[in-house]
Amino acid sequence: MEVTEEGLVRYFDVVLPHMNEVQRRVVAGAMSEMLGRGGKSVVALASGLSRTTVTKGEYEVGADIEPSSRLRALGGGDKKKIDKLPGLLATLDELVNPETRGNPMSLLRWTSKSSVKLAEELARRGFTVSSATVLRLLHLLGYSLQANAKVSEGRQHPDRDAQFRYLNDTAASFIQRGQPVISVDSKKKELIGNFANGGAEWALLGSPERVSVHDFKDPELGEYAKAIPYGVYDLANNEGWVNVGDTADTSEFAVESIRRWWHQMGAERFTDAEQLLITADAGGSNGYRVRAWKVELARLAQETGLSITVCHYPPGTSKWNKIEHRMFSFITMNWRGKPLTSLRTIIELISATSTSTGLSIQADYDPSWYPKGVKISDRELAALPLAPHDFHGEWNYTINAQSIST
């Protein structure tokens, strides 16, 4: 069969793209051997391979060398960068090591540790490598991209864990006796207006919700353009109440939120209740050092006839408050990507929040005015029917349902 140069070109164009390096070399060498004298030059021209490669392939065919999974023989190919550039690994490790990078004298102390930045710094130190090589070497050194891990809670109180156990045991005791246990907290203030809200929501391609570029207060909404949601979460029944105000997050507002929960939901749910347990953060409007919080709770206890017990979470542990991950987190997910254009929008989005585990939430607007800076005297505080518990009485206390003496 006559083999033409045009036929060889067409043959190699079809076959070679589907082969690896070894296979291409062997096929070219076999074709060269079949053509005989002058075959190497003809095959090299038709295949695009170098004449040296074709010659090597013909030798391998003639020597009956068995192909293996390796594309090159042992020792073949270029040397590794770490062999060609002694000290490269150690220098890279020095640049990314947290202890070294924390040194104020480090050139990368205040810059990103991206592969491009690292490659530039290595070049300044005499090691010319690409950013891709830097990535491979980082993996070789045992590094990987790591996000910040929120584990440090600051200075921890020595009785932190003991307070958690006390709080949990107290809550379990209340629930076992059919007495209400609620977790309370104020959600972060929310901007009211056509402003961007975190998260993404499904929409037609190229048709995102259009919002204002800047988060400036809308003058048409009046002096107060922020919503203040205060939540009450019923641990035993997976129910929540959110009181949405627009003045200030004060202790009076916090206790009024609890009062509204009791009248709207709690009294009907707990018809035989004599006690109420409140679990709250250590700071904010419901903090254990806030006098107004205790005065307002005493008024609530007097009005409802409930003996109110409060157990605070230890300082710096607010993220463990049940309301955070059992209610507020789902509210945030429900209104993600939706601008909170009005108080009514906020209330409807909160009320529409539910989960597959049965969470239900009610919400309403609180139009009352809550002044800030209310002072409580030592005499008023001493007059409260407040009984500290034996264990950390500053965190755990009960306010009895009796008249407040003046």
First-to-last CA distance: 119 Å
Helical content class? 25-40%
Low-confidence stretches: 99-110
What is the succession of H and E elements? HHHHHHHHHHEEEEHEHEHHEHEE
Overall average pLDDT: 83
Q: What structural category arises from helix and sheet content?
A: alpha/beta
How would you describe this structure to a colleague?
This protein is of the alpha/beta class. It has three domains: 5-62; 81-140; 160-197 and 220-399. It contains 15 helices and nine strands. It has helices spanning 5-15, 21-35, 39-47, 51-62, 81-84, 88-96, 98-101, 115-124, 131-140, 160-176, 251-269, 291-304, 322-334, 343-351, 378-382, and strands at 181-186, 190-191, 226-234, 239-245, 275-280, 307-312, 360-365, 386-388, 396-399. Strands 1, 2, 3, 4, 5, 6, 7, 8 and 9 form a nine-stranded mixed sheet that branches. It is elongated, with a radius of gyration of 36 Å. The relative contact order is 0.10. Residues 99-110 have low confidence and may be disordered.
